[in-house]
Amino acid sequence: MKVRERERVRTLIASGVKIFDLYDLMDRAGTYTFRFTRKYINVPLTAAATGLLGNQVGGDAFDWNKLIYTPLFITAGICAVGLALKVPNFLSAAKRNFARLQGHINMVQLKRNRRAQHAKLLWDRHFVYHTREAFTEDEMAAAERSYLQTREQLIKELESGLSSKSIDHLELENLEGADREDALADLALAMEYETPTSPGIETCESAFHRTLMFSLRSDEAQRETQEKSGYSFSEYKTWLRQTFFDSSHPPLAGHLATDVRVRNLKRQLKHDGVDHDTDVRLNWYIFPGLAQRFWHANTIRKVNLLIGKTLSLLSRKYKTHLNVQSILWPGNHRHAAFQVTANDGAVLGDELHEAARAIIRRVYGEDRGRAALMLDRAMLNNFIETKGLRALVDYAYCSGDGLDQSYLEDLDALACCGALYKYHERFVLRAR
Q: At residue 123, does pLDDT exceed 90?
């Protein structure tokens, strides 16, 4: 199924039941009941105060006790109903919170583990164009070759120039062949990452990668780091600190709602009368955005709950401490520490692997297509909205002129549905 293609009601209900069951409905009803009580608590309190005053000055002409206690009993009853509805949520909160807290550490480490891929993407999608404005393609290619040759020379000098004592200190004495070369290459990279090449625009991809890694490793103030590197990676650093298991905000929701630059941009576009068609705004951005909060919050909540439940069960069964890394880190189940056998003959690593697969299948679906659709409902709307906003203000991205990317190519890569794609084809033609 393509992105933004209209779905059948039966399909939506079947998907919604996986992440929103009777206990979730009870919890939401209890939450709204508490909110109602808190909002209107002043009414019975005022009535009670009036009754107390009436008992003092009104005499026996009227039974003011009825006016005192009746609204308080009603309010207490509403609170009791709300509390009863939230009991199932209270019972599962510990498992869900455990998974969320442990998941934060897990996802931050997993993101940091993939910084090289992120650097490649940042360079290809954005920063390379800054370099192209200052240098020609030949100059960039020559700078790349020179940089890599210098790095190779550094590795050779480390190999030939280190004393035996230094080699022992670096734990290289027992490494040979490819393993020793890899260790020396890692040592050279670690030395590079301690300083940027220059406080200006980098001339090649390898130099940019070095500057990015320096910025991420630096313990100095953000302003000082930016002055030394010439780049600001504050948004990327913020993203690295965010966990995938936070159900409070869908991706990019905070930026679209609160970022000053985005708000000023939208205000300027509104002033100039530049926008997408009303039908497109309603059916492709606004309505899916409203539904996205439901899908995102409940999908993440269900994953947290299942992970917490699984880790609690396996921790008791194998009498060991487990966290989200144990179950979700790619390939972690093969680690020697998890090759523990239980009394029934089961192996911890195998159970962790199967549990992870079962959680993903239960929440996202049995096949890749259904999983992609669930992810699109929960995650994709803000990315599509961001791309649509960029197409309104960035002519090069809209038309593809001078870039290795374009709006229509990105929509095609997202498997955008035909109706939305045709509209944006017409939009791009008008922009040209």
A: yes
Neighbours of 261 (CB within 10 A): 8
Task: Give the tens place of pLDDT for each residue, 163-182.
Answer: 878 877 888 777 888 888 88
Predicted TM-score (pTM) above 0.85:
no
Phi then psi for residue 416, to 5 deg, are: -65, 145
Distance CA 14, CA 21 (A): 11
Integer distance in angstroms from the first to the last C-alpha of the chain?
31
**Alpha-helical regions (H) of 114-136:** 115-122, 128-134
Rg (the chain; Cα; Å) = 29
Residue corresponding to tokens 């009754």: 51
Is-contact 81 97, C-beta < 8 A? no
380: closest CA among 424, 347, 414, 423?
414
- Residue 385 burial by Cβ neighbours in a 10 Å radius (0-12, 13-18, 19+): buried
Q: How far apart are CA 216 and CA 198, in angstroms?
A: 16
